[in-house]
Design brief:
Length: 369
Amino acid sequence: MAKKSITSKNKSNQQQLDTDTIQKKLAWYESFFNNASDALFIIQPETWNVLDANESAATLLNMNSEELIGSTIPQFRRIFKLLEKTTSPKILSELSLITPEGKELMVEVSAKFVKLDGDTLIQAIARNVSEQHAMTDESVQASKLVLLGQLTAGISHDIRNPLAAVNLNLQMLQRNISADSPNYNYIENALLGVERIHRIVEVSLDFAKQAVMEFEQININSLVPTILELAGISIKKKNIHIKLELNENVKDIKADAKQLYQVFINLITNAADAIKESGTITIKTFNEKSNKKDERGLVVVAVQDSGCGINEDDLSKIFNPFFTRKPDGTGLGLPISKRIIHQHGGIIDVESKFGLGTTFYVKLPMVSE
């Protein structure tokens, strides 16, 4: 009888220790969650209720935690749709959130599905990027591009002019040499090197200067043939199949065609670079309806590749100036593209799975009917 009593007491003590350990771990996790510097949300799909959120999330929306938890944020519907369509474990996108005072916040959201007790929930990390959107080109130059701005005049005079002379002389030599000559290939390689230097200089100057936009009403499908022609050099270097899925009913947009050419040529070139030897680049266009009656819908251009994909750790950095994994990259193509799309009132979403490919979604406001 005494042994049973001791055994029961030991079991009770062990259970109490297990309970204390669990409670301690829960307190740790709760502390980590609440004290995270980024805003964290747990969202229930379909109802779009906030099941849980940390202090940073409440501060972001200028709400009390008690008010935020249990409230509804229907803007997460778009994040849910993106996660549903992709095979990537995580997506990076932007959302416009409204505070109780009616203030609009632009937030960058990294989100993924999580399973809990058989339910599928959305775990989202949000960062306020409103100031970045509101920055003028002058403030960007002042805060981030001071050094580049100081160098542009020197680059323009000291590199572009001599480079043009080198290019001209190489072309004249090439015309006077037979294509069968071994020297012909040397000149061809030199011309490719000149083209690469010219591209780097032009990209640096484009990023530093303030672009003057010339908007006109256009149909995005009409730009695709020229885009493919201009991006042909990158595509023809490899065995790449171009697949077009253009919606003939896609709506018109107000845009600067020259600026959009720059965006899509950059995206297609990146897609080609991501493909090792052979693969497919798919270009789709379609309309995306707005969830709100008073908002215009979006015209979407998706550029999808079957390449190497983007490492999950790099996904949040790809729009940072000068960030690149390419040996010959400038790290300016995507930041320039994002700035151009923002100037058009649009956004860029990206989804990627390492080893399987990447899709960029360029979303532009359609013209009101």
